[in-house]
Amino acid sequence: MTTMTAVRSSQGELRATTPPSERGARADFRVVAKAVRDAGLLERRVGFYAWLMAGLGIALVGLLVGSVLLGDSWFQLLIAAGLGIVLTQISFIAHEASHRQVLKSGPANDRLGRILAAGVVGISHQWWMTKHSRHHANPNQIGRDPDIEIDTISFLPSDAKKARGIQRWVTQRQGWLFFPLLTFEGANLHVRSIITLLERRPVVGRWLELGLIAGRFALLITFLLLVMPPLMALAFLGVQLAVFGIGMGASFAPNHKGMPTVSRDAKLDFFTKQVRTSRNIRGWGTTMLMGGLNYQVEHHLFPNMARPHLRAASEIVRAHCREHDITYTETDMVGAYASVIRYLNRVGLAARDPFECPMLATRR
């Protein structure tokens, strides 16, 4: 049985592990890994991804044709929303390619991921690979996981305390503002990845990705200006980015936000770190809606596992956790978002004036 010496709550901090020994913890994971491997769940499912990409390609072409047929009509904003949804789904495949989940060879996955991410979605594949690899190695670990570093939202009380000005006002209400803020996440992803490509340090594929991203935006903007008036084209871009941002943020945030954080110097075994800091989302259609990210525990344990195998793997991991009395967190989508909002609001309390009357603050 694995226990923690400092688990305050489901939003608490994991500081260290007590028995079993590191050797025993590794053995536990080997049992799960062997069961998964023997069940054939580490095999690629190229056919699944081929059909999925074909379907998304048809949807993408259909949206562009629909936009041409609509012309000067504000119904174009519905096309923009649909484009945001399709680009979110394509981003999921790019994410899976970066984990070598799609094709059989690493270089082929890298090429596919770069084409989809930079050429279709408009986000740097290399930036995503670097950032996301650090996250997988250190999920929710303070000072090591880039996904809990301060951005517009503070994920740690220590960061919330530093907020000033408008940032402080936002931080105090960040739980309730979470979904509205996600409408800006699409633009944020584009900007941050481009800035990374322009940094003065070695970046693999820098000029190729900059060329793909520039070409992608040039083609999109040219298309929009040929089909609709400039003001409508601007609104189209705004809606597409907002829907894309909500789709991406709402798919990634429930997986770890509100789960235990890990202190920077903690030495946790692989299985404990990945399982205790991750949350699965159950419910019909969530695998397609979230690109397989709803099986976050299994995705972190087996990051190169193809999406169709995640459900079967979850049964093996869940049974192992039940047998060894290891916490395995799974909830529905509403419960997950409620936990995220509560957690962000609790963190936001650190940004409040220590001399402010709590009762007065609740009446504002």
Helical fraction: 55-70%
- Averaged pLDDT: 88
Q: Termini, distance in Å?
A: 47 Å
- What is the string of helix and strand elements? EHHHHHHHHHHHEHEHHHEHH
Round the Cα radius of gyration to an integer and report it: 22 Å
The largest sheet is: 2 strands, parallel
Explain this structure.
There is one protein chain. By secondary structure, the chain is mainly alpha-helical. Helices cover 61% and strands 3% of the residues. It has helices at residues 22-38, 46-70, 76-98, 106-121, 125-137, 157-160, 165-172, 178-182, 185-197, 206-227, 230-252, 270-276, 286-289, 296-301, 310-323, 333-348, 358-362, and strands at 13-14, 261-262, 279-282, 329-332. The strands form 2 sheets. Strands 1-2 form a two-stranded parallel ribbon. The chain has a two-stranded parallel ribbon with strand order 3-4. α1 packs antiparallel against α15 and α2 runs antiparallel to α3. The longest helix is centred in the first third of the chain and has 25 residues, at 46-70. The radius of gyration is 22 Å and the shape is globular. The chain starts with 12 loop residues before the first strand and ends with a helix. Mean pLDDT is 88; it is low at 1-11, 15-26 and 357-364.
Compact summary:
With 364 residues, the protein is mainly α. The protein is 61% helix and 3% strand.
List the helices and strands and how they pair.
Layout: E1 13-14, H1 22-38, H2 46-70, H3 76-98, H4 106-121, H5 125-137, H6 157-160, H7 165-172, H8 178-182, H9 185-197, H10 206-227, H11 230-252, E2 261-262, H12 270-276, E3 279-282, H13 286-289, H14 296-301, H15 310-323, E4 329-332, H16 333-348, H17 358-362
Parallel strand pairs: 1-2, 3-4
Helix pairs in contact: 1-15, 2-3, 3-4, 3-11, 4-10, 9-11
